Amino acid sequence: MDVTDASFDQEVLERSREVPVIVDFWAPWCAPCRQLGPLLEQAVARFEGEVVLAKVDIDQNPALARTHRVMSIPLVKAFRDGREVGEFTGLQPAASVDAFVRALVPSRADRLTAEGDETSLREAMEIDPGHVPARIALGRLLWDEDRPAEMREVLAPVAFDATAAGLLARDALAGAEAPDVAAGLGHLRAGRYEPALTHLLDAVRAAAPGDRETLRAAMVGVFTELGEHHPLTVRFRKRLAQALY
């Protein structure tokens, strides 16, 4: 499908929460683009709807080219769960294109993670102990069910991930006496992100230097969950940077 400045967020970012989306940034005058296009189409077709191909004509959509830092074409980017997860530049052999697409197709652990229940998530972790999405999904479930010790055990191996670090930061902040922290965590549990971020930002401004990193991690975790281009992420990331620096 052809994607434009106006439709990119819906057709790529939001669609990628359901199925991986590959975006081919190209232009009609680019000979390597015209060679790569059929290779991408053939590779995607082999997976029968498990991955989607979108094409962006950079001449017709210069804003997208700027946003996604398109310096040369063809440029191919992959999106999953609302964020970019891979890319390559230039004409590639068919085998390399196939491997790029195949890596995006859900594995057995991916499919179990999509089920979302505790049994499926734990089975996904048994199949792939390093499966970050499974651990994060289970960690969030355990957080919602107020099972913090289990959550810490599940998330500890993937604490490098911003979302996991954000959940662990929420746990570290639990029981804090500061009203803004308590209010922020309460709103997060209820899924009210704007008031949650507002209270956490106020807490950052009033916090001692040693506590700011935990608060920052909690907010960055929310940004990662929402996505880099979400209006709340854009607005509060800038405010957080101002409060910290």
Verbal overview:
The protein has 245 residues and is an alpha+beta fold. It folds into two domains: 8-102, Glutaredoxin (3-Layer(aba) Sandwich); 159-244, no CATH class. The chain is built from 13 helices and four strands. The chain has helices at residues 8-14, 31-45, 62-67, 94-102, 108-115, 118-127, 132-144, 148-155, 162-173, 179-189, 193-206, 209-226, 231-244, and strands at 21-26, 52-57, 75-80, 83-89. A four-stranded mixed beta sheet has the order 2-1-3-4, with helices on both faces. Strand 1, helix 2 (31-45) and strand 2 (52-57) form a beta-alpha-beta unit. Helix 7 packs antiparallel against helix 8 (148-155) and helix 9 packs across helix 12. The termini are far apart. The mean pLDDT is 90.
